[in-house]
Amino acid sequence: MAIKNFSVRIDEEMLHKLHKVADYEGRSANGEILILIREAIKEYERNMG
Predict the structure, then answer these.
(1) Residue 38 above 90 pLDDT?
(2) Helix axis angle, 12-25 to 29-48, nearest 10°
(3) Secondary structure (H, E, C), 2-37
């Protein structure tokens, strides 16, 4: 599986909150984003097939 870069625009307050959540979970912000994306895809696939 190839790793691709993906840029996202995020406001400063949301980024700060993301870092707090990631720190609490023991992850980097990037790692936390990947977890959230995977969970969203899993939920979508469960609901939509």
Answers:
(1) yes
(2) 90
(3) CCCCCCCCCCHHHHHHHHHHHHHHCCCHHHHHHHHH
